[in-house]
Write a structure and sequence with these properties.
By secondary structure, the chain is an alpha/beta fold. The chain has 13 helices and eight strands. It has a domain at 8-138 and 220-290: Rossmann fold, CATH 3.40.50.1820. It has helices at 45-49, 53-56, 80-95, 107-118, 143-153, 157-166, 176-186, 189-199, 201-213, 247-252, 268-271, 273-284, 287-290; strands at 12-17, 20-27, 32-36, 61-66, 100-105, 123-129, 230-235, 256-261.
Length: 291
C-alpha cells in the first residue's frame, strides 16, 4: 500500500478490552509493526505518526495504538504512564501478536523499554525516538518538560505555543493550525486531567518522593536487561530530552545503536522525516535484526 493516508477515519480500528475501548490505526502491508506515541498537550498516535505511515506501510502493517488518557482510547483514572503498558499488552493479546517490532516516541519508547525489560519475548526489536535514559550532563527536567508543567498548571494558548516551540528545532513548524488543533484536544477536561496526573507539579513531586522511598530500581537502571536489537534515534537539538540522555541506553543496552539527526528537536520522526524513515526502515529490515 503506497497511497497517502487521507484521514484518521480511513485507518481507525477498535478493540474492546476489560478496561475500555482501545483504538488504533492500521495501515500498510507486511509483518506487523507497533507504534507508540509520546505524551503532551493534544498528542495522539495519529498526530505523532500519520506522516510516516506511507513510508513505513510499504514494508509493514503499521499498528498505531492510541494510548488511554489522551482523548481517543478510553479515559483512565491512572496516570497514562501507568495505564500505557497494560494497554499495549491488551492490544497485542487481542490481535494475537507477540515478538513484534515496536517504535516508541518519547513516553512510548519508555513504555516499550519497560515492557521489554519485564518480558524479553514481547518485542523482536525496538526503535525509540528521544526520551529514553537519564540526563547525564544537562539539567533535569529539560526545558520542554518545564514548559509542559507550565501548561498543565495554567493552560493558556501562550503556554501551549511555548511548549510546542520547545519541541522543535525550526519554529516555523508551529503553525496556527497546529496550535488550534492541539488546543482543542489538550483542554478537553478528561484529557487535561490526565495530563495533570502526569506532569502537574503535585504529580511530579509525588513521583519524586515515591522514587526516593522505593527499593525498586528505575527503568533506566535496568536497560541492560533488554536483549532485543535496539535503534535509538535522537534529534541533536532536542530540548525536551537532551541528546546526552542517549549515552546511558546506548552504552547499557547490549545490542543498541544510536542515530543522531542534526537540526532536529524532539519530534525527529516529523522534523527530519525522510532521514528518520530511511534509518528506521533500514534497521527494521536488516537480516541481523529480523532474525
Amino acid at each position: 500500500m503506497t497511497s497517502a493516508v487521507l484521514s484518521p477515519g480511513d485507518t481507525l480500528r477498535e478493540l474492546p478490552t476489560e478496561r475500555g475501548m482501545l483504538r488504533y490505526h492500521e495501515y500498510g502491508d507486511g509483518p506487523p509493526l507497533l507504534l507508540l506515541h509520546g505524551s503532551g498537550p493534544g498528542v495522539t498516535g495519529w498526530r505523532n505518526f500519520h506522516q510516516n505511515l506511507p513510508a513505513l506501510g510499504r514494508s509493514f502493517r503499521c499498528l498505531v495504538l492510541e494510548l488511554p488518557g489522551f482523548g481517543v482510547s478510553h479515559d483512565t483514572d491512572e496516570s497514562p504512564f501507568v495505564a500505557g503498558p497494560a494497554a499495549v499488552v491488551a492490544l497485542l493479546e487481542g490481535l494475537g501478536l507477540r515478538g513484534v517490532p515496536v517504535v516508541g516516541n518519547s513516553m512510548g519508547g519508555v513504555i516499550a523499554c519497560q515492557l521489554a525489560i519485564e518480558d524479553p519475548g514481547l518485542f523482536s526489536c525496538l526503535v525509540t525516538v528521544g526520551g529514553v535514559g537519564k540526563n547525564v550532563f544537562s539539567p533535569s527536567p529539560g526545558e520542554g518538560l518545564v514548559r509542559l508543567t507550565d501548561f498543565v498548571e495554567k493552560p493558556t494558548r501562550e503556554a501551549l505555543v511555548q511548549w510546542l516551540q520547545s519541541m522543535v528545532f525550526d519554529p516555523a513548524i508551529v503553525t496556527d493550525e497546529l496550535v488550534e488543533e492541539r488546543w482543542a484536544q489538550a483542554t478537553e477536561p478528561a484529557t487535561l486531567d490526565a495530563s495533570r496526573r502526569m506532569y502537574g507539579a503535585a504529580a511530579t513531586a509525588a513521583r519524586n518522593r515515591h522514587a526516593a522511598a522505593s527499593d525498586r530500581a528505575p527503568y533506566w537502571a535496568m536497560l541492560h536487561k533488554i536483549t532485543a536489537p535496539t535503534l535509538l534515534t535522537w534529534g541533536r537539538d532536542d530540548r525536551v530530552s537532551p541528546v546526552d540522555m542517549a549515552l546511558l541506553p546506548m552504552r547499557t543496552i547490549p545490542r543498541a545503536e544510536l542515530h543522531v539527526l542534526p537540526q532536529c528537536g524532539h519530534w525527529a520522526m516529523l522534523e527530519q522525516r525522510q532521514a528518520w524513515e530511511a534509518a528506521v526502515v533500514a534497521f527494521l529490515t536488516r537480516e541481523d535484526v529480523r532474525s
